[in-house]
DNA sequence: ATCCGTTATATTTGTATGGATATAACGAAA
DNA sequence: TTTCGTTATATCCATACAAATATAACGGAT
């Protein structure tokens, strides 16, 4: 029975949360489904919460992270921009590196 | 206007939270004040919450982390064991290292 | 012109976490 | 044996956050 080190990391911009694990998960789901409502369903979160999250992301981002369209073919949709994909990849990379780093730190407590 | 990377880490044992930043803060306050109720006051949390936290810590720890006494001189009190001090130091060290590590990762997003 | 499924938004409802409060048990000291 | 301040515990209450619901706006396709 050994210990595990868990972590949550997030990026802040102007002292407000910009990107975290939940937001990145949502951005990935938007990329996969092409729609904010479908992405919310796939993550079992309410549309309202999902909308608030990407609204917040887009408002504090330097460039658009998603492009949301109302009406038209299929009623509209949402897509991840290239900039959004870059951010998602960068966050995932940092997060994965953090996990690996913390695994090395486990040595310090495994015998306590 | 640059980004900041924030983090919260915690240690789990048997899939339950064992030590996190809040618990470590509380353990430090117990060490400083000699009492659980005083420690709770100093952190502006309720006694109930504080009691639940250290009860949880002690229940999942391999050795006692605090020793709580009821009655007697001063009504009783709580003190951090040597084992508890070791845990607090180990957690603080890992947490600090994590912050430093994440600072190095900032480079990857600072131009995004 | 109508329909459709989506984004966008407000309002109401539900829930879970912590706070406030009350009280018992305890044991050394006076 | 009474006092004292603490730990331990239960119960009730408040408040913040998310869920559920409702509805408007939109624009391409039919």
From TrEMBL, chains A, B:
Family matches, as PANTHER family: DNA-BINDING TRANSCRIPTIONAL DUAL REGULATOR MODE (PTHR30432:SF1), TRANSCRIPTIONAL REGULATOR MODE (PTHR30432)
Superkingdom classification of source: Bacteria
InterPro entries membership: Molybdate_resp_trans_reg, WH-like_DNA-bd_sf, WH_DNA-bd_sf
Source organism of this protein record: Hwangdonia seohaensis
Identification of the protein by name: LysR family transcriptional regulator
């Amino acid at each position: 029975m050994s210990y595990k080190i868990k972590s949550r990391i997030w990026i802040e911009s102007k002292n407000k949360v910009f990107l975290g694990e939940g937001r990145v998960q949502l951005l990935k789901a938007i990329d996969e489904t092409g729609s904010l409502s479908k992405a919310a369903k796939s993550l079992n979160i309410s549309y309202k919460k999902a909308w608030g999250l990407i609204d917040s992301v887009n408002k504090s981002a330097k460039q658009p992270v998603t492009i949301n369209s109302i009406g038209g073919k299929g009623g509209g949709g949402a897509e991840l921009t290239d900039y959004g994909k870059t951010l998602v990849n960068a966050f995932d990379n940092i997060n994965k590196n953090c996990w690996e780093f913390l695994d090395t730190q486990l040595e310090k407590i495994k015998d306590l």
